User: What shape does this take?
Amino acid sequence: MNQANKDSRLGMLSALRHGNFKAFWIGLVVSVSGMQMFYVIQVWLVYHLTESALQLGMLGLARAVPSIILGLAGGVAADKIDQRKLLMFTSIFIFISYTILATLTLTGSVKVWHILITVFVVGGFQAFDQASRQAIFPHLIPRSEMLKAVALNSTVHPGSRIYAPLIGGFFIDYVGTPIIGASIAIYVIALTYVFFCFQLSRVRMPAIPRSAEGNGFQEIVNGLKYISFRPIFRLLIATSFINAFFGMSHLILAPILVGSFFGNASGSAVAMLFSMEGLGGVVGAIVGGNLSASGHFKIHNIIVLGAAFYGVFLVGIAISPIYAIVAILELLSSTSNNLFSVIAQTTLQTQVTDEFRGRVMGIWSMTYSIMRPFGQLGMGAIGNTLNAPLAIGGGGLVVFVIALLGCGRSNELRSLKNS
Assistant: This one.
């Protein structure tokens, strides 16, 4: 009784009572914070060197291409290989990649192609990294606390975007010259992956049944078939892809939005938009987890309203004439998107079998590793040819329509019961 009351008060934080999950989660927070810092640093650095919306979009292409080539293979690897060891391996090579870029930046030798190659190489390692991160944590937590663990994990990316971009902006604006500040920030980012390795070394993995040895290509095909035969899986993953491509990609144009208000792309002003998006994501994760757990709101309604309002708020960002309003709408749009994301991920994690978990969550992670980067390329191209508000507003309209026509009319989603 007392433990139940304590867990109720702690909410999703009660998942941290489990030592293995706690060690993993703390390492995840630190490494993702580094990742979020780098998003701001790379955007600022490319715009500082080129002042080109198209070059900003090329960052998305550089991140997406290795994910396309290796993304599904990363899911297969997560099902066949010790996920903890795989994460440690990828983290070491990401550390090396960022250290090289930091040194080039510090010495004043950095070029746009250095940044693009670094993003490309890191994207390749992250194709394996992201699938394993999604697949490992359900084995570190009791199934009864899956919703709490998913909600807590869903706060990591948006939560780190509250403070990590501001730290990156601080380095740029206040630590030596902007270039020196950016280089020091990249060194710090590299070290966050060393810390993640240390935390992973403390995790003790349970015995996990692996899929039988077989042809890698056939394993990928089997994973795609597994999803294709499950309408709810197809719908949730497709909607997440749409949200990422047409919606989540819009912040690649943050320097241009900031420049339209202030005349220059201040590192701190750009970082603030990323931070507001992060704060909204945390709010969305917390509210989404609590709404579903309460049983007072149907899963179908949370998913539809979250995705639909995400599109509405994106349109608001596009037409807003004031920076402060844009910042507030960033918070609201991210809250809506993460309402959708938390419930969608929980649905996938509770319904997928362990044999296919790595492949299913690897495909889900393409939301971030492929669809958002490709969307960034599209945003950059439209922003360069026409203008940034048109690119963002058009994307928001697509998100809104798909939410209503796809999720809103799904009988399969209507049949889902709250956990």
